[in-house]
């Protein structure tokens, strides 16, 4: 549904993005991640026809965003990081206005207004003046305007920026509910949100795509060791030394944040020595309190892919 090939955008002599290529399937929800200044917003603005690319092509449903701009934009719903709302208008008036800008007819607009206010949780705020709404509800109105014309593709730039944790959960629920009905591409700085909401992530750094896969597959590609958390009652320093001498253990680190007697045991990839560790700890009489695998988070993957130390920049 979204196809990007060799996308490059210069601001004067400075490249904002270089040779960016990726695709998003119909009905898929994909997160577009990157540090500040990586080129996320530039890419989204080119995708939506807000600005032209210097080189490369973007297609929405097979339509070239530059060559067939009007037809392509009709298939896009766009929620920028700062949504242009009219604070003096009521919610339903604003959404009607947005629908008319998309060329929707009165009968169609009335039915669609009911649908998007229900999807976005705005049924009891239809008569509210936008300027009196909380930030969370204003974000919902911004999402509703992106949905009003039933677009095939939704492009959401930081849809939960500035929201409190409860509001983030509500907006996240709305976005997850769009899966299958719309193709959704969203940028976010909240990595757990991407992991909980999206099927796949695209990571951009310094204007170039450095990774594109599911969070699970990216973790498998990046992870150099497997880690087990071991917590014992015995707090003697010799515990760490003896654990480190076990076969297939590469390192042992104290995990003081989880309390005394807690260790992170790194093992070789592909090894599962939990049963051996359990038998060893019990045999030593250390008092086994907890033993579980520790999964690498998307945040750790992101940090490794967007730091110069890994040579990806």
Can you put this structure into words, describing what you see?
This protein has 313 residues and is an alpha/beta fold. It has 2 domains: 2-220, P-loop containing nucleotide triphosphate hydrolases (Rossmann fold), CATH 3.40.50; 224-295, Alpha-Beta Plaits, CATH 3.30.70. 34% of the residues lie in helices and 27% in strands. It has 11 helices and 14 strands. It has helices at 40-47, 69-74, 91-101, 106-119, 135-147, 165-176, 191-197, 215-222, 238-244, 274-284, 298-305; strands at 2-11, 14-24, 29-33, 55-60, 63-64, 76-79, 153-157, 183-187, 200-205, 208-213, 226-232, 249-254, 262-267, 288-294. A 6-stranded mixed β-sheet has the order 6-7-8-3-9-10, with helices on both faces. Strands 2-1-4-5 form a 4-stranded antiparallel β-sheet. The chain has a 4-stranded antiparallel β-sheet with strand order 12-13-11-14, covered by helices on one side. The two termini are 29 Å apart. Mean pLDDT is 87; it is low at 309-313.
Low-pLDDT residue spans: 309-313
Structural class: alpha/beta
Number of strands: 14
Determine the strand fraction and express it as a percent band: 25-35%
Helical percent range?
Answer: 25-40%
Task: Using the 3D structure, state the CATH architecture of the largest domain.
Answer: 3-Layer(aba) Sandwich
Order of strands in the sheet with the most strands?
6-7-8-3-9-10
CATH topology of the largest domain: Rossmann fold
End-to-end Cα distance, whole Å, is 29 Å
Rg on CA atoms, Å: 24 Å
Tell me the number of helical segments per DSSP (H or I, 4 or more residues long).
Answer: 11
Overall 3D form: elongated
- What is the CATH class of the largest domain? Alpha Beta
**Assembly of the depicted chains:** single chain
Please state the average pLDDT score. Answer: 87
Order of helices and strands: EEEHEEHEHHHEHEHEEHEHEEHEH
Q: What is the domain tally? A: 2
CATH superfamily of the largest domain: P-loop containing nucleotide triphosphate hydrolases
């Amino acid at each position: 549904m979204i196809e990007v090939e060799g996308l490059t955008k210069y601001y004067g002599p400075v490249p904002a993005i270089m040779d960016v290529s990726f695709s998003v399937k119909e009905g898929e929800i994909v997160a577009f991640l990157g540090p500040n200044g990586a080129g996320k917003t530039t890419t989204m603005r080119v995708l939506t026809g807000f600005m032209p690319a210097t080189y490369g092509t973007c297609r929405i449903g097979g339509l070239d965003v530059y060559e067939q701009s009007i037809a392509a934009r009709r298939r896009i719903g766009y929620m920028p990081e700062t949504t242009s709302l009219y604070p003096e208008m009521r919610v339903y008036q604003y959404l009607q206005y947005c629908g008319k800008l998309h060329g929707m007819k009165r009968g169609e607009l009335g039915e669609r207004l009911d649908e998007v206010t229900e999807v976005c949780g705005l049924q009891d705020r239809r008569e509210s003046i936008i300027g009196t709404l909380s930030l969370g509800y204003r974000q919902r109105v911004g999402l509703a305007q992106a949905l009003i014309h039933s677009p095939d593709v939704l492009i959401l730039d930081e849809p939960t920026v500035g929201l409190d944790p409860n509001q983030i959960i509500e907006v996240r629920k709305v976005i997850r509910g769009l899966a299958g009905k719309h193709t959704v591409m969203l940028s976010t700085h909240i990595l757990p949100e991407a992991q909980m909401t999206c099927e796949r992530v695209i990571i951009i750094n310094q204007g170039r795509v450095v990774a594109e896969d599911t969070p699970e597959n990216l973790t498998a590609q990046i992870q150099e060791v497997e880690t087990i958390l071991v917590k014992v009652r015995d707090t003697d320093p010799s515990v760490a030394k003896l654990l480190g001498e076990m076969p297939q253990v590469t390192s042992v680190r104290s995990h003081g944040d989880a309390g005394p007697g807690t260790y992170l045991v790194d093992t070789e990839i592909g090894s599962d020595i939990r049963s051996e560790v359990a038998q060893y700890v019990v045999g030593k009489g250390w008092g086994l309190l907890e033993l579980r695998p520790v999964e690498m988070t998307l945040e750790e993957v992101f940090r490794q892919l967007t730091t110069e130390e890994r040579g990806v920049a």
